[in-house]
Automatic annotation (TrEMBL):
Name this polypeptide is given: Dehydrogenase
Leader sequence residues: none
Residue stretches making up the Gfo/Idh/MocA-like oxidoreductase N-terminal domain: 1-118
Keyword Oxidoreductase included in the entry's annotation: yes
Entry's Gene Ontology molecular function annotations: nucleotide binding; oxidoreductase activity
Gene3D superfamilies xref list: Dihydrodipicolinate Reductase, domain 2 (3.30.360.10), NAD(P)-binding Rossmann-like Domain (3.40.50.720)
Keywords of the record: Oxidoreductase
Alphabetized Pfam families for the sequence: GFO_IDH_MocA (PF01408), GFO_IDH_MocA_C3 (PF22725)
Organism: Streptomyces corynorhini
Length: 334
């Protein structure tokens, strides 16, 4: 298979490595608006650098993987759909709802494949949690607690193109909460703080966020995120039911220390970031995409799924701005 990869930044470089090693990928063409960056990644992965992003679409590729800055996703998704090409795209689809609805509409009108990069769906721990909820082992689920803590802020230049903490970061928690519980969010109440590094306030963003979410069966959930977790990269989910409770992401690399004399030993090798913590999941999602392209697997995460997660992020932004609970029914696209 001939694959075109667009965007060779942090995550695009990782995806280029995975694709270049994959048995189904005969050739890989990479492109970036920063041509030197694409050339560097092509050199490191034994792939070919296209002179421009346009060239990727005229190289006879079988599918495209979009890992550019979020602001370019919707346009590239549309171009892939119009070219009849299956596309894998990093989350989120777009910075806003109209852009997301438009891109999903284009893909559906073209009848092409769009798989979104919600890699937690391919993580072993989240997969086990989903099975546990379905098996009834937890009994009636009453509380879900989702945590995403980045060890350090991204570069300041990333913030204005990211869509903000809810759309960029917590959107993963919203997607995985729906996927693990099988329930829909019906209401959110969210807030945020920009008390950390000044670049967040300057970009109109927040560095820390907290939301209370009500699911359609009455289960209550919290989701928190920060860009400033000095202890390390911490992504967890706790699921508590009437019969039992379980935690995803709690292991000897979880960067949290118990204050109890008989607590577990302090972690001396915390997860440094998403690429290390989720490496197997990123590999599995691209492997799944290549199977989707060949028709041997159903799409595990299509545009509509991504739209649901984004609508929750939009509701949180509205709630934070207007300081009130927001019903998901208020957000278009449901
Ligand atoms: N699934 C995940 O866990 C995960 C993790 C990190 C990033 N992401 C997503 O991946 C995307 C990229 O994030 P990143 O951290 O790699 O950012 P980054 O800033 O490191 O890289 C983005 C790259 O895109 C390039 N670019 C910008 N506009 C472009 C265009 N129009 N065409 C081609 N290339 C263009 C930039 O030159 C840059 O090299 C974002 O949408 C982000 O939300 C997802």
């Amino acid at each position: 298979m001939r694959i075109g990869l667009i965007g060779t930044g942090r995550i695009g470089t990782f995806h280029a490595g995975v694709l270049s090693r994959h048995r189904e990928v005969g050739s890989l063409v990479v492109a970036d608006t920063d041509a030197a960056r694409a050339a560097y990644v092509a050199d490191r992965t034994g792939s070919t650098a296209a002179p421009s992003v346009d060239e990727v679409f005229s190289w006879g590729v079988d599918a495209v993987v979009i890992a550019s800055a979020t602001s370019a996703h919707a346009d590239l998704i549309g171009r892939a759909a119009r070219a009849g090409l299956p596309a894998f795209c990093e989350k989120p689809i777009a910075l806003d709802l109209p852009g997301t609805l438009n891109a999903v509409g284009e893909v559906e009108a073209a009848g092409t494949v769009l798989q979104l990069g919600f890699m937690r769906r391919f993580d072993e721990g989240y997969g086990a949690a989903r099975e546990l909820v379905r098996s009834g082992r937890l009994g009636r689920l009453h509380t879900v607690r989702a945590i995403t803590s980045d060890p350090a802020p991204p570069p300041a230049a990333y913030l204005p193109l990211s869509g903000g903490l809810y759309r960029d970061c917590l959107v993963h928690d919203f997607d995985i909460m729906r996927w693990v519980t099988g329930r829909e969010v019906v209401e959110v109440y969210a807030t945020g703080s920009d008390a950390g590094p000044s670049m967040f306030a300057e970009a109109g963003d927040i560095d820390t966020a907290a939301a209370v979410l009500t699911l359609d069966d009455g289960t209550l959930a919290t989701a928190t995120a920060t860009r400033c977790n000095g202890a390390g990269y911490d992504v967890r989910m706790e699921l508590a039911g009437e019969l039992d409770q379980y935690a995803v992401g709690l292991d000897d690399r979880t960067p949290i220390t118990s204050t109890e004399p008989k607590g577990p030993p302090a972690c001396d090798n915390p997860w440094p970031g998403f690429l290390e913590r989720f490496a197997p999941a990123y590999e599995a999602e691209l492997d799944a995409f290549l199977q989707v392209v060949t028709g041997s697997l159903a799409n595990p995460c299509d545009g509509r799924e991504a739209l649901h997660a984004l609508r929750i992020a939009e509701a949180c932004e509205l709630s934070r701005r207007e300081r009130r609970p927001v019903a998901l029914a208020e957000i278009p696209g449901g």
